[in-house]
């Protein structure tokens, strides 16, 4: 995955350094971080995350430099003294690339490349490089290329040392013509418009796919990169999904069937991981990929509980979710990698800070019962349990229940069948329309004034409160016994 041909041509014009030769893999790099007040990073090891990004990109880290400042230097990000120290560090280590854990302005990057004579890669460019390397589907490749083009548009000036103009028209009134950078910007804008148009078509297709799944229960996994979402998905569904101990191993949304005891089958989706200071253009490009998370019934926020930066990662994910219009506060917090937590008090502290939190170990398959129970409770708020009585040969009803609900128990006689099932409330009206002669008794009849034995249409018209106390069930066809403690109400003459 690379930039447009004109950008590669621009790269070939560079004299020093030659960015056309920049392959993040197999490079020797110095890691640099400017730590600012309020930074959401591990202050004990500020370069830990950048080191992980570099490892994922295949970079060999040969040296590192950290500076604490109240604000970045507007000219070179680091101060003058640190810049001289960085020069000596680069010369002594033999590095050919310098990775910054900060987002640099085009001017800062230009000054640093001029002063150090090496390729400067900031945090956004490194993340874009990793995304480009890991993009497999056509949609992901288009999304990454769009983010790359938007990132490079403001940095085209760095690709030209002479900024020559093309020749004007013949004669004295032709003018000097366009600058090459103006041509490049126009080409970038054209390519961006083309990519956005193609992604719009794919987004509409994805919206249709998500809309088709709205008749089914859906659960989505979100979380910080390398929190173990894919491992958890494999453990819960048995699906053969790609799992790797690296950042951004998964870029594409994958959906598999997850069978939850006493609830039935739901669709579980795994989405792209988030990270601190994720480029905004990248978030915007992957917005359609996160469509599954926006419309799911339950959101599972997976956290690496063994990470010292777990709380900062939780805040980062919630900020990105808010950016794309998702309320992360309603998610179930899944504290993964509980087996790697050195002290149990860490899990206790995380659970104390977050109400809906459950600790699991996807690797050792522990804690799944509590997670499944919590998800079932969330999804069950939209369900009603019914006891249906129908003819033994009513195959259409059995097909309807198999498609939209779950049959918990069934008994057959020569002429009829009694079915205990769980059904989403939104399908009660559809059940009434298609099967008006089927008798039903609800497991939640607190708000139903009619006799327990009713038709499906009568039950659908009644409002069943799932949070009400569950009363004793009365078999279909029997009359409930009178309560001897209650005096009968005298009849009122009309």
What does this 3D model show about the protein?
The protein is an alpha/beta fold and 494 residues long. The chain folds into four domains: 5-133, Rossmann fold (3-Layer(aba) Sandwich); 143-166 and 175-210; 217-379, P-loop containing nucleotide triphosphate hydrolases (Rossmann fold); 382-461, Alpha-Beta Plaits (2-Layer Sandwich). The chain is 37% helix and 18% strand. It contains 16 helices and 15 strands. The chain has a six-stranded mixed beta sheet with strand order 6-7-5-8-9-10, sandwiched between helices. It has a five-stranded antiparallel beta sheet with strand order 12-13-11-14-15. Strands 2-1-3-4 form a four-stranded parallel beta sheet, with helices on both faces. The longest helix has 33 residues, at 180-212. It is elongated. It starts with a helix and ends in a 33-residue tail after the last helix. The relative contact order is 0.08. Residues 1-25, 160-166 and 444-494 have low confidence and may be disordered.
